[in-house]
Write a structure and sequence with these properties.
This protein is of the alpha+beta class. The chain has a single domain, classed as Nucleoside Triphosphate Pyrophosphohydrolase (Alpha-Beta Complex), CATH 3.90.79.10. It is built from 3 helices and 8 strands; from the N terminus they run H-E-E-E-E-E-H-E-E-E-H. It has a 4-stranded mixed sheet, with helices on both faces. Strands 2, 3, 4 and 8 form a 4-stranded antiparallel sheet that branches. The protein is globular. This is Nudix hydrolase domain-containing protein. One of its GO terms (molecular function) is hydrolase activity. Belongs to the Nudix hydrolase family. InterPro entries: Nudix_hydrolase (IPR020476), NUDIX_hydrolase-like_dom_sf (IPR015797), NUDIX_hydrolase_CS (IPR020084), NUDIX_hydrolase_dom (IPR000086).
Amino acid sequence: MSTKNQEYKDEILVTRVGAQCLLVKDNKILLGKRKNVFGDGHWGLPGGHLEKGETILEAAARELEEETGVKAISSQVISVSDANLENNYHLQIGVLVTKWDGDPQIKEPNKCSELSFFALEELPEPIFISAKPLIEKFIKNALY
């Protein structure tokens, strides 16, 4: 292994895999304003990290329901994004929820201050760092 590759490997302390849900209705996407967590004040997609033994779709459905009360009925993986932030490698999987039941509500008020659908051409600022590339790929239809 080259020295450069070894140095990079040594810098990576944790690898995290996240599933982020894209709920789109009438050309609007659901975003929540993060509160008391990394990215406080930024707008992000519902989602979170995989738990041991979960598939991407299971994690996405669980996180969506925990955060918004919405139950995913059908969904599909549509994109992948990664970033090396603060010595942690993050792999984010974008999951398009194509059918769901329920109306989004804030279910974790300690982590989310606002929840709303936004027109894809009029997104609020700032967008959470790990959600931004997934949303951009969706808008450009540059999936996977």
